[in-house]
Structure formats: structure tokens, C-alpha cells
Design a protein that fits this description.
mainly alpha
Length: 194
């Protein structure tokens, strides 16, 4: 089992984000309804992420099964749900401010950069197979029914089509889960003990 605490997440360059999060927490006015709805969104987001990382073998295979047959970026979709859940949990104008700030950062900075660089890297590595996948599977909005690649694509990829727990560990998703649990506990303390 990997150490779930990644030192890069404790770097000084992330200090402004931690300060902003602490300020939002301090100013928050959570109420029970939005709190529990936020918990639900976080659980959905973490579940989507867990489903995705169980298929993901970074830099070694192109994942096209499981959630990747519905959406190219299930981890980012899960992160979007988690961020919205936390914003909702905070309540009031603080939650709205958090949602606007998170949504703006995610939609205009983080995701476009990640989508561009990952698509370029995967396009160079997998060529026409990735281009075909990219054309048929949306980035964040899931498609239904799931995409089913042609047999020749499956033969070329020789992909393992099963979810595996060791990939959850290898992709350090336990760290994400623990960070979210800590965040939920902090907001719960604000709601129930303030």
C-alpha cells in the first residue's frame, strides 16, 4: 500500500489554495440540507474516480473500458462532482463563491490545459486509435450507450478490461479519499459544533 500523503500536495506553491480553503471554511454557514446533498455529490464524485482509477494504467495503456467507454476523463468528471459537493456543503454566499471560483478555475484553467496536453500525448502514442476514440467519446459529458470499439482496435491495444484494486492503490486514490473525508469532517464540525 502506497503512502496516501503525497509530498507534492504539501508544497509551498499550493499554500494560497490552502489559505483560501481555510478562509472559506471559516466564513461558511453550512445548513443540514445542502450539507447532506453535498455529501451525496462528493460520494458520487469519489465513486466515479474510484471506478476510473481501477482501469487506469498511466503511461502504459490506453484505457477505453469501464467509465472510459462513456467519458474520456472520468477522474476529472469525479473531481468536478467533488468540488461542487464541497461548495454546496459550505452553504450560503460562501458556497456560491466557492462554486464560482472552483468552476472558473476548473473550466477555464485546469481542465482545458489537462485535456490539451493529455490528448496530444495520447494522440502521439496511439495515433489513429486514440483519434477514433477521441471522436467517439466525449471529454466530460457521458455518452449513452457506452462506446464499443471495433475488434481490430481491441486487438491492437491488448488492454486488460477489468477493474483492479491494485490500480486504485497505484494511482494513489486513497490519498484523494482521505483528503475528502478530512474536508467533510471539517465542514461537519462547522455545521454541528459551531
Amino acid at each position: 500500500m502506497r503512502n496516501p500523503i503525497r509530498l507534492k500536495n504539501l508544497s509551498v506553491r499550493l499554500a494560497p489554495l490552502y489559505v483560501a480553503g481555510a478562509l472559506l471554511w471559516w466564513l461558511a454557514s453550512p445548513t443540514p440540507g445542502p450539507f447532506w446533498l453535498g455529501i451525496l455529490l462528493i460520494v458520487v464524485g469519489l465513486s466515479v474516480r474510484a471506478w476510473g482509477v481501477g482501469y487506469l494504467v498511466k503511461t502504459e495503456r490506453l484505457a477505453i473500458h469501464g467509465p472510459y467507454a462513456y467519458v474520456r476523463n472520468p477522474l476529472y468528471l469525479g473531481t468536478l462532482w467533488v468540488g461542487c459537493g464541497f461548495s454546496l456543503m459550505l452553504g450560503g454566499w460562501v458556497g456560491l463563491l466557492g462554486l464560482v471560483a472552483f468552476g472558473s478555475w476548473f473550466g477555464f484553467v485546469y481542465f482545458p490545459r489537462k485535456e490539451r496536453t493529455e490528448s496530444e500525448r495520447l494522440g502521439l502514442r496511439y495515433g489513429d486509435i486514440y483519434r477514433h476514440y477521441h471522436e467517439n467519446v466525449p471529454a466530460l459529458w457521458p455518452r449513452f450507450p457506452a462506446w464499443r470499439p471495433e475488434a481490430e482496435i481491441l486487438d491492437q491495444l491488448a488492454e486488460d478490461r477489468t477493474w483492479q484494486l491494485q490500480r486504485y492503490d497505484a494511482n494513489n486514490e486513497l490519498g484523494t479519499l482521505l483528503a475528502c473525508v478530512v474536508g467533510m469532517v471539517f465542514v461537519a464540525v462547522r455545521l454541528f459544533l459551531a
